[in-house]
Amino acid sequence: MSLQNVVSGLLLGGMLALIGMGFSLVWGILNIVNLAHAPTIMFGAYITYYFYEGLHIDPFLALPITMGILAIFGFLLQQFLINRIIKSTLLITFLLTFGLEVMFVNLGRLIFSGVPRTVKTDYDSASFSFLSAEVSFKKLAGLGIALILTFLLYLFMSRTKIGNAIRATSMDLNAAKLMGINIANIYTVTYAISAALAGAAGALLSTWNSFTPDEFGKYNIRAFAVVVLGGLGSIPGALIGGLAFGFISEIIGGLTIGSGLDAFTLSPWKEGILFLSLVLVLIIRPQGLMGKEGYR
Amino acid sequence: MISKSRVGVRYRMFTLLATLGLLLSMTLAACGDNTATPVPATTTAAATTSAATTAATTASGATSAAATTAAATGKFDGVIKFGAPLSLTGSLNNESKQTQNGYELWKEAVNNAGGIKIAGKAYSIDITYYDDESKQDKSAQLAEKLIKEDKVNFLLGPYGTNSTKTVSAIAEQYKIPMVEGNGAAESIFSQGYKYTFGVLSPSSNYLAGVVDALAAQSPKPKTVAILSANDNFSVEVADAAKKVAEKNGFQVVVYEKYPNAETNLTSQVAKVKDSNAEILLNSGHLNEAIAVVKAAKELKYSPVAMGFSVGPGLPEFADNLKADANYVLGGSQWTSAVKYKGTDIFASSQKYYDDYKKKFGVEPAYQAADGTACGLAFQYALEKAGTLDPTKVRDTLAGLDIMTFYGQIKFDDRGANIYKPMVVEQWQSGKKVTVWPNDVAETKMLFPTPAWDKRS
Amino acid sequence: MNIPNLFIMAVAIMLSIVASQRKNKMLGFAGLGVLALLLVAAPFISENKAPLIPIFILGLGAVGWNIIGGYTGYAAFGQVAFYGLGAYTVVLFGSKSRTPLPANSLSSIQDQTIGWSLPIAFILAAVIPAIIALLIGLPVLKLKGHYFAIATLGIAVATPQVIANIGCIGGTDQNPGFCLGLGTGLTMRPLPDDKEANLTQLYFLGLIAMTLAVFLLWYISRNKFGYGLFAIRENEEAASVMGVNTALFKNAAFVLAAALTGLAGAIQAMLQIQVAPNEDSIFNTSTSLYVIVICLLGGVGTVWGPFIGTFIFAFIREVLENMPKWFNNKGLIEWRDVIFGLIVVLMVLFLPKGIMQLVGNKGRFTWKIFLRNIRENSI
């Protein structure tokens, strides 16, 4: 373990927070575990890729456009599909999103092919030294964007009328209805925001490593973990959860006990440990590390 | 009440009949594909059309129309059916497509050249593919399907170690010879199976060439760090690399596994950086290889050499890394630079390269050559055996010793081809060149790798 | 006779729908009888019996899921953990050890196994996942709704990772004579002598296990245990107040489900001979979802649901499998999974209670069923 691990953990955490935030919103407010989140991230990554390769638009400049496109996508999806089954059981909504995931991932394969892609900018691997650690510019920018989006979302939720309506809906559905809130519209707006956030995550991810349409499934499970760690439906919670997850993951990856070749390393155990501890957190503190009952 | 239930019954019967009718027509359509082999030339035309198109289309748009038309003109006395479950979708589909192209190229070349001559008769080749979705359970099912429903004479290998293990067990049980080119793990060949042959060099050689090549450089580096994905094949490769490195007098300072398909490898590379290892070896897959290079640059870690088992051989490696791919070494089963004088239809690597590029529009990766070599092994064994009898063909395969564009194809008693050496490729200013062994090298290895900030 | 599997599957779907009807007892029993005949005859009339066995494999998993997910209402999304464990157990205990590698071999990877008899291995393949399910279930079943679902999912992701990292049990890498190398995968040895007989055996093993499992499902549904589970599904607190030992009942259901799923994995291991702790081998996350989709197709929480569902599922897969062949393979392989996803979406939208809704008590088919389902669930 070194300073480098701490820094990388923080940078990874920002990304994971962004992934978790949209997921947490939909789950907390619509009560849907949205497996279609991962393909939305995928679309975000590929839209950014085509903007960069085709039109030579910088991925960070293309970010708002990507988010906009996916917000529309999310809007349509929720309006015409998910709202049609929103009242059925947990299982049914889960299966709907599963079906959507299978469909979108395979459509992704058809449209984008399985060839690995990266958005390779000129500043791709540029980094600066901070004490003994190297900090990547693009990842730092990603962390910054994650923080800004968190802040904006927080403002939106607490300061705007729609935001307040969304919060009211998540707190008490029936009371919200009685207050004259159009629940269907609230759901649609929420989902659109979630899709936009997923798009932002995808856009940033596209600059990190090479990706294929099959890569993105794992982010669903990552998003789960972030939400569970941070507490359901909480925006600051998602940020904390993401940072915690990234941090733990890098620390485990970098941990060495002993020295030389006989040293015990946890690196191959990373996934196993992460998800077992996820289960542990669930059992010990189901409301998450940060969550308080009823707090959004 | 009565009438209601009668309506129900009538309705059910109606659905039953309607569905059955629909299904019958479907299944009859499916039956049309099952043709016995060898078939007289006149009926072949119709029969192969569907099967041959099955084979052809997924291969990047190019079709094997030539094969079909040749069959239609009645040039052939029969068809030899091959089958392969391949990963046309799923995580392995990219590499698997190369293999399929390799099979297709061989099929087309042989069919255009008059087919395979067995005991004075000319047979055309037909290959049926199924998609195993990059899943092992599916491979098992599809191998059975190929053998039982499509009645293939012989099997060509699937893609990947896990699938190859499963299909080889099934080939063994049905006593159908299989030649494979994309399952390199030693554990495939240590099962004592008699019907599986691998044309490629087994896993222990993947990084051995890179290590040997680096041991011959001066000044000779001293320390090696090995990273490996935690799957069957990668662990075998890494394990062998460690042994070869120690044998060559290197000191292995880091030997670490990471979860399979992990692309966030900063913490692992940071550890290697801390150890100041001069050489970084990685045993994994394409995405992981790309991730390692990216992480190394980001952490400003500049080893004198980076070597990968899988990755640099594929054109996508440089597509994704651009200039950062330069200086990277990779073990390769085959490159277009190797200068074997083959007796086969392709004869030389250059011709193979040209033919492939002409047909598919891209450069062949070694996975494609692997596939073609599988076909060649079958072709020679069949012509030599003079029969389609699986057992006799197996025996001939076991004793095969031929020289092809791909290198020597000869199997040891396990069925592994340990006689063909692996070569080492290096990316040099955006081009992939062969740098080891010296007798096939196109140019000298660029060594040592300059630090990241000293590159032009 | 060489009858295509597609045909067998289709007839089985029809017959099981007929057999599941309780309105007309005579017709139901007649359907059941013919269905039994068909299933017994199937391996002998099918042109390729191998693809028939996975019907029972997934079917067993689906019956298992129906107990915990359908009856008890606990949406378990990690059944593949038990499936994989069952597969691993049967190979570990049923496969003979390999002769040690030659000393000069570059590879030091061993996959030593224990090599008891196969029947014992099969029993263990149900028992070991059951024990592990008990250990997991005690804490995890305290969670509710989504949280339970995620916990099971987390366990399903973690299980292969744990197995992959247990390099050696009972030995060291230096002294592999005693080492059970779990991490790199295990291979079933020796291969059965007679492939055809082996497939027939596996088929009947699957058929008998499936029959017993469906019978168990039926039996549970009409005794105290089942009523307890239904009560938990409807309202756990109320059930507890009414005197149902909810903790015991939930755990029993979870353990039963794990045992059946483990057995399913064991049969699959026999088919694919080699198992590895990877996503692309036996720990495929979609398996967890497939068993649920099967229940959804046939009807969640019903006795006949998993049975009918598994045949429908197999039928759809088989059609999609053969589709490229029928349509001259014009890019259809790539479309196959898109279509599969679409089927799931349409099913959930229009027939969330399963295919039986179409032939339910109302008798006559109308499009209104679809519209009603949509209206009921939409906002």
TrEMBL record, chain A:
Highest taxon above the source species: Bacteria
Pfam families: BPD_transp_2
GO molecular function: transmembrane transporter activity
Name the record gives this protein: Branched-chain amino acid ABC transporter permease
Compartments, as annotated in UniProt: Cell membrane
Its membrane topology: Multi-pass membrane protein
One annotated GO biological process: amino acid transport
Family: Belongs to the binding-protein-dependent transport system permease family. LivHM subfamily.
This protein's UniProt keywords: Amino-acid transport, Cell membrane, Membrane, Transmembrane, Transmembrane helix, Transport
Membrane spanning residue stretches: 6-28, 58-77, 89-112, 140-157, 178-201, 221-240
Entry GO CC: plasma membrane
From TrEMBL, chain B:
Coiled-coil spans in chain: none
UniProt entry keywords in alphabetical sequence: Signal
UniProt keyword Ribonucleoprotein present: no
Record InterPro entries: BCAA_transport, Leu-bd, Peripla_BP_I
Pfam families: Peripla_BP_6
Limits of the Leucine-binding protein domain: 80-431
SUPFAM superfamilies to which the protein is assigned, alphabetical: Periplasmic binding protein-like I (SSF53822)
Signal peptide: 1-29
Top-level taxon in the UniProt lineage: Bacteria
Family note: Belongs to the leucine-binding protein family.
Name of the protein in its database record: Amino acid ABC transporter substrate-binding protein
Organism for this UniProt entry: Candidatus Chlorohelix allophototropha
TrEMBL record, chain C:
Main location: membrane
Protein's UniProt keywords contain Heme: no
Pfam family, one: BPD_transp_2
A molecular function GO annotation: branched-chain amino acid transmembrane transporter activity
Membrane topology listed for this record: Multi-pass membrane protein
Domain of life: Bacteria
Subcellular location: Cell membrane
UniProt KW keywords: Cell membrane, Membrane, Transmembrane, Transmembrane helix
Signal peptide (residue range): none
Membrane spanning stretches: 29-45, 52-68, 74-93, 114-138, 202-220, 252-271, 291-316, 337-355
One Gene Ontology cellular component: plasma membrane
PANTHER family for this protein: HIGH-AFFINITY BRANCHED-CHAIN AMINO ACID TRANSPORT PROTEIN BRAE, HIGH-AFFINITY BRANCHED-CHAIN AMINO ACID TRANSPORT SYSTEM PERMEASE
Entry protein name: Branched-chain amino acid ABC transporter permease
Organism from which the protein derives: Candidatus Chlorohelix allophototropha
